[in-house]
Amino acid sequence: MTTDVRRAGERYRGGDPQAGIDTRHAFSFGPHYDPDNLRFGALIACNEERLAPGAGFDEHPHSHTEIVTWVVEGELTHRDSTGRETRVGPGDVQHLSAAAGVRHVERNDGPAPLTFLQMWLTPREPGGTPSYTLVPAAGGPVRYPVPAAGAVLHVRRLGPRERTAVPDAPRVYVHVVRGTVRLAGAELGPGDAARITGAEGLEALASAPADLLLWEMTP
User: Fold this and answer.
1) Alpha-carbon distance 9 to 48, whole Å?
2) How far apart are CA 93 and CA 134, in angstroms?
3) What range(s) does the Quercetin 2,3-dioxygenase C-terminal cupin domain occupy (predicted)?
4) How far, in Å, CA of 203 to CA of 153, rounded?
């Protein structure tokens, strides 16, 4: 088993601060090209997005990508080329399967700042028909499978001194949203992530209330 810890401060800065967009990229993205950091398993992006009120991303295309979004605070307005418009709130899981091609808009139309995590995964097979799923926030753990990418998203919310098992899997990506946890001998805080290969028998221990996103991935 190997564990590769990436700290919040190592993320690539992006976005457009003058337009109210602050982005932190975990993987090679746009002008921040890093051939040694293109992906981890099916995961090719894990972006922390902060949008000021009124800010957002105008209509833009995606294809052959599974896009999963988890809102931390605020409300995200989503519109896409299928005519769908939704509001995504804290703890909701949004999944847009871009398939052969889709266009969408993402904005903060609310009065408060918006923070969300957006994660992109590569599908095993290209093409297909775009689809959309919105899973409302749940009080307990969330398990959301993305079979097209051979992956499962786990959302874990821990109290102080609470433990949670890390899935045994060929690859697991752990992102700390809030709080502090101890994992594989490392202390992880907000924005920190661990890329684990050959995970087996691992647990995460919260030292304070913590929210974790874990991607369980098969080859």
Assistant:
1) 12
2) 6
3) 168-217
4) 16
- The closest of 45, 7, 5, 12 to 191, measured between CA atoms, is 7
Give DSSP secondary structure letters for 115-169.
EEEEEEE--SS-----EEEEE---SS-EEEEEGGGTEEEEEEEE-TT-EEEPPPE
Each of the 219 residues of the chain gets a pLDDT tens digit; together they read: 999 999 999 999 999 999 999 999 999 988 889 999 999 999 999 999 999 999 999 898 999 999 999 999 999 999 988 888 999 999 999 999 998 889 999 999 999 999 999 999 999 998 899 999 999 987 778 999 999 999 999 999 999 999 999 999 999 999 999 999 999 999 999 999 999 999 999 999 999 999 999 999 998
Question: Phi and psi of 17, rounded to 5°?
Answer: -55, -35
pTM recorded for the entire structure: 0.95
> Within 10 Å of residue 145's Cβ, how many Cβ atoms?
12
**Both tokens of residue 89?**
């709130």
Across the strands, what pairs with 45? 120
Side-chain half-sphere of 47: how many Cα atoms within 13 Å?
A: 22
How is the chain split among helix, strand and coil, in percent rounded to 5? 5, 60, 40
